[in-house]
Amino acid sequence: MAKHPRRALLVLTGAGLAAAAGLLVLSSTPVVWGGQQVASTKILPLPTRAEAESLLNKAVSFARTHDYDGLCRAIAQDWAACKVVLERANVAHAMPSSAAPFVEEAIEHPDTGSVQGAEVLRIRGTHADGSSYASNFSAVRTTDGLIRSQNAVYWFSSFQMPSA
């Protein structure tokens, strides 16, 4: 019977897998696979409250002119997701009024390494039909330094806050 060289097989499960994944996430060195950089863990600075409010004002301008494609392209972090939310808002007959929403407070949500950090504005406003809404408008910094929103459709979101 021929002898075969021993081969080591490293199997990571449970805590070992989580620890290995954590090392990849927390490392400040880019991950290289096949000669190409595939990931970087550079933590970007959070947008300021002023930057978040400026982005919200731009979103309001697009909504006032009914330029929803422009809203998704210029404001949203994810154009396709923005389009889906717009479609849902339209089906629900929830369109914004021309009045800008009121910013109740700003909350910093720091980057945790696994969740992107954001400056979140808690806002209240009025729909075109006169009904009120309350929601969160988040501003994030993209890897190319732009400020974008995870929920550009500020008057309608899947995580609506209760209206007062």
What can you see in these coordinates?
With 164 residues, the protein is an alpha+beta fold. Helices cover 30% and strands 23% of the residues. It is built from four helices and six strands; from the N terminus they run αββαααββββ. The strands form two sheets. A four-stranded antiparallel β-sheet has the order 3-4-5-6, with helices on one face. The chain has a two-stranded antiparallel ribbon with strand order 1-2. β4 and β5 form a beta hairpin. α3 packs antiparallel against α4. The longest helix is centred in the middle third of the chain and has 16 residues. The C terminus is likely disordered.
Topology:
Layout: H1 14-26, E1 31-33, E2 36-39, H2 49-64, H3 68-74, H4 79-91, E3 102-109, E4 118-126, E5 132-141, E6 147-149
Antiparallel strand pairs: 1-2, 3-4, 4-5, 5-6
Helix pairs in contact: 2-3, 3-4
**Structural class determined from secondary elements:** alpha+beta
Strand content: 15-25%
H/E topology pattern: HEEHHHEEEE
The proportion of residues forming helix, as a percent range, comes to 25-40%
Rounded radius of gyration (Å): 22 Å
> Which runs of at least 5 residues are low in confidence (pLDDT < 50)?
4-35, 159-164
Beta strand count: 6
Strand order of the largest sheet: 3-4-5-6
The biggest beta sheet reads:
4 strands, antiparallel
> Span from first to last CA?
80 Å
Q: How would you describe the shape?
A: globular
Mean residue pLDDT = 78
Helical region count?
A: 4
